[in-house]
């Protein structure tokens, strides 16, 4: 099988070769913009704001629990709360996807909104580990899972050639949530205490979910429900390699998001108050990292953009080992956030390029949720357990996981190119 690399313009053309037509209404022309389409993008933005945005906030809770509310629990035990939350956000999507296909779009948003708000309200009443694990980990995680599928599924109904850009703009909601919610929590919990700080966040979540509840809608009637599994996908080298790359990537990706604040407090003289803003810097970098790379991805192809971004993130993860100054950790957080932002926003577009037709896109996107969710589930608890042997080992684990992911992404690109060249021959 030949593996000659395509030039960027050829790559972009081949990666967009799938007819972008909805199977439920083949004659319907996708608007690819306009007021209604961008309103849907805004609604998706607020869903991201309150599912991934909430998950991206857990780092500030991790530090607070370790130092105040749950001082007798290990780092690994506490990280299970956030890991279960992020695991459920993705894993639930495997089963929520078919419900979306059956036409329960609005019901999913309503159930998810209730779950996130109710879970945060219950978290505000918690005083023990198991209570927080159940409310913040399980209930909030389930609610986020119901919101996540509508947040990514609505975009292809309204955008074609601007899909990656629209998806990136919507995904910025998770970064903005990860900027606002940690600042809010840190400032409020020192003034009004943990319970009311968490309740205020729950009220804000409720208020910002009103817009998507009122405005989001699918453009065409849903067709037949998709299958949960497309077994042929696992026999295709590009999709299989990309799935494994996502597993390793997400296993290492969120380690700084959970632990960088604690690291800064213990290993630098940045000060506890300023350290709490490092998570905000990570998410601020991620905000820009979901716009510019996605804009470029529409020009040269999403895999071609993701590979250099994730390899740069790996370099930064290893550089983290030698950072001991406030300035260094601040620069690290912003750059790491920027170069990992595309790893969250580009996969749905990449799955699109790896699918033979749009009729199996939803199924394959759902299948990808499994390796992603498993990586999210085990990565941070493993890091917490490794932390007992020192920070350097945690940072090395993070870097190695991301390097492996980058190598598998390169293999994905080579395999995909080889298939294209073979098909031409």
From TrEMBL:
Annotated spans, Disordered: 1-25
Locations listed in the record: Membrane
> Which keywords fit this entry according to its UniProt record?
Membrane, Transmembrane, Transmembrane helix
Q: Which Pfam families match?
A: MFS_1
Locate the compositionally biased regions of type Polar residues: 1-11
Q: Where is the Major facilitator superfamily (MFS) profile domain?
A: 36-424
Q: What is its main location?
A: membrane
Q: State the family it belongs to.
A: Belongs to the major facilitator superfamily. Monocarboxylate porter (TC 2.A.1.13) family.
Q: Name one GO cellular component term.
A: membrane
Recall the GO molecular function terms of this protein's record: transmembrane transporter activity
> What is the topology of this protein in the membrane according to its UniProt annotation?
Multi-pass membrane protein
Q: What is this protein called?
A: Major facilitator superfamily (MFS) profile domain-containing protein
Q: Which SUPFAM superfamilies match?
A: MFS general substrate transporter
The membrane spanning regions, by residue number, are 35-58, 78-100, 107-132, 138-159, 166-184, 196-218, 239-262, 274-293, 305-323, 329-354, 366-387, 393-415
């Amino acid at each position: 099988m030949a593996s000659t690399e395509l030039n960027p313009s050829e790559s972009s053309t081949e990666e967009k070769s799938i007819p972008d037509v909805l199977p439920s209404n083949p004659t319907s022309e996708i608007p690819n913009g306009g007021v209604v389409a961008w309103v849907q993008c805004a609604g998706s933005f607020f869903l991201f704001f309150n599912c991934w945005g909430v998950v991206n906030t857990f780092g500030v809770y991790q530090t607070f629990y370790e130092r105040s509310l749950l001082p007798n629990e290990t780092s690994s035990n506490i990280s299970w709360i956030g890991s279960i939350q992020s695991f459920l956000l993705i894993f639930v999507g495997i089963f929520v996807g078919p419900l979306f296909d059956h036409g329960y779009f609005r019901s999913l948003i309503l159930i998810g909104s209730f779950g996130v708000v109710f879970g945060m309200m219950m978290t505000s009443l918690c005083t023990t580990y198991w209570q927080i694990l159940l409310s913040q980990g399980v209930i909030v995680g389930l609610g986020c899972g119901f919101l996540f599928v509508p947040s990514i599924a609505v975009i292809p109904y309204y955008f074609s050639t601007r899909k990656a850009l629209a998806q990136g703009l919507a995904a910025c909601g998770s970064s903005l949530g990860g900027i606002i919610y940690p600042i809010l929590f840190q400032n409020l919990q020192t003034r009004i205490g943990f319970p009311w700080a968490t309740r205020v966040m729950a009220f804000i979540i409720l208020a910002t979910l009103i817009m998507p509840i009122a405005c989001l809608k699918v453009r065409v009637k849903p067709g037949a429900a998709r299958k949960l599994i497309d077994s042929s996908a696992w026999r295709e080298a590009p999709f299989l390699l990309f799935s494994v790359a996502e597993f390793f990537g997400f296993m290492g990706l969120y380690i700084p998001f959970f632990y960088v604040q604690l690291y800064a407090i213990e290993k630098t003289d940045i000060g506890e108050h300023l350290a709490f803003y490092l998570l905000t810097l990570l998410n601020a970098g991620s905000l820009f990292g979901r716009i510019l790379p996605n804009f470029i991805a529409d020009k040269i192809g999403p895999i071609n953009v993701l590979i250099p971004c994730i390899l740069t993130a790996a370099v930064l993860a290893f550089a983290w080992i030698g950072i001991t100054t406030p300035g260094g950790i601040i620069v690290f957080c912003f750059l790491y956030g920027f170069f990992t932002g595309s790893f969250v926003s580009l996969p749905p577009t990449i799955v699109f390029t790896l699918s033979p037709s749009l009729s199996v896109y939803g199924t394959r996107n759902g299948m990808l949720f499994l390796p992603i969710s498993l990586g999210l589930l085990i990565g941070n608890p493993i890091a917490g357990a490794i932390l007992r042997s020192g920070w350097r080992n945690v940072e090395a684990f993070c870097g190695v996981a991301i390097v492996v992911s980058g190598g598998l992404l390169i293999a994905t690109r080579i395999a995909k190119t080889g298939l294209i060249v073979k098909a031409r021959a």
